[in-house]
Write a structure and sequence with these properties.
This protein has about 425 residues and is α/β, with parallel strands linked by helices. Helices cover about 25% and strands about 25% of the residues.
Length: about 425
Amino acid sequence: MFDKAVINGNVYLEGEWKRTNIYIKKEKIELISESFFEAKDYLDAQSYKVIPGLIDSHVHMYMGNSLQSADDFYSGSVAAAYGGITTLIDFMKEVPTANQIQEQYEIRRKEAENAVIDYSFHPSVCGLADDPEAIREKILSLGLPSMKVYTTYKPNTYSDDESIEKLIGQTADGQVMVLVHSEKDDMLNSTCKDIRCHSKNRPVESEMEQVKIIADMIKKAGGRGYIVHVSAGSTLQMLKEEYASLLKKNLFLESCPHYFLFDDSEYEKPTNIRFTMTPPLRSRKEVEKIRQYIDLIDCMSTDHCPFMLKQKQKPTLEGLMMGVGGVEQSFRQMYKLYGDKIIPKYTIIPAKVHGLYPKKGQIKEGFDADLVLFYESSIEVPLKEHTACDYSIYEGMTSGISIDYVMNRGSLVIEKGKLHKHTGKFLERKL
């Protein structure tokens, strides 16, 4: 007898919809069949589309700078679950040595214990006070085969090109990957403090030029890299024209919904502080272009890092906390734009790119029973939020997509608006 059965659903299987049943045993998908078998518990999915649990591979929960971010792992994972996300990958604090990576790992494990969905981490490196080989071996031993670097934010989190190139040199065998926040630091302007200058201070060209540098390093090393939160369509166009042979093989690209939905005219409005993040929002022309090049994006994530409004209440850019929320509305808004085409960018592709496959990312026998049941309606309703943050950039927007059931490893986390008690599990990853 099976533990659970999700029956009669319109199930997303390898890119196609099929009316079938999913049978679950001991947290795994045991059988997919059109036949009916006995189970201890049934969920009738007759009215629903059934997709794999979504993966957000770029979030910042419980992030402490001078002020603590709004969501900890509990509230942030609750909001994520309401958005259909069943796996989060967060970041460890930026450190320069292997020993400090171990320390940060232990700290982060404790901070994430109350997450209600599954989670993993990306170690983060700043500078390079250690042998790159030692860092590589440390992250592999932790089951966390990715490391993030920043090409800006001097002096605290910054890594120079020479240090990054050494780290990329450790990725040639495909066992590890370097994630890069790519803005060329010497092209950024801090002279204008007015919030209306935010997008001009961090121009598209700074992203494009730094991404070129990273792409050249990857090409030279035969390595493996990943550009986080690509914000500009021009960056994608440049990569397609100049580095097409690297894309989807050695170089992977991520973006976030806010770069598809909003433009830098938000910085001219009285609510401009709500839309401050890095990289900033781009021009309407860039928004149209990034939509045009959506096929080049491998993974959709959110860079979820909200701060309370009182933390954002600064008259100028100086000292203003950068970051916005998004986990609850991400899939709803992008599915509205692209339909079924967007599903792999939240499921199987991030699972494969980030080493969660063959456990996550697909409805398949032997995989974790992470499932999302949603339906579409022609009647759109205002969006709800479950984040601890007191505002959302999605306020006033609507959606006809209702995510009614979310299951993580066979257990219901969300059931028609109700949150069930559930404990997320730490995931080791292997590329």
